Protein 1
Amino acid sequence: MQGAPELINEATAWGLEPKTAVADGGYGQIIAFHQGLAERGLDFVLAIRSDESAHPGKVVPGVPPCGWTPKSPVVPAGPNFRHLPPGLRRG
């Protein structure tokens, strides 16, 4: 089985001109893959894992501007049965 970079090279060898690449989180966390796409001049959209973030290197986390307050989390309402189904009882 070939990896994505080899498939891109093969498509180019066939005379195809890929313009855009889309990849899942497996490739999204491989910096060499990002660089290879950029070197080929391709636009790309890559997924990242939920425990990663993507931002310019000079960005520093900070406190939001004055006057902004986070909203309280939305808690979904549970089932509201007027008459409980058979087998259920109120706690």
Protein 2
Amino acid sequence: MPNNPHDRVGIGAPNRGNLTLWDFANPDEAAKAAVHVYGADATAAGAHCALAAHFDGRERDYRFWFAVFTKLNGTGSQSTKAH
């Protein structure tokens, strides 16, 4: 997947290492924060974050945001422990 030149912390950034959202965030807490910030639009915001990570080539971040989206969408049966 091509790198997004506007994503300064994307997969192609120098010295990025392997740090992802899974290393410092929890999908349950992220879902609660999204509801607090975005209200009724929280599900759309979670989907947007998941798609942005996917198209930026950040697979682990995509899976994190997809886990957040599934919680916001009421389909949170997916395990968010796997990364």
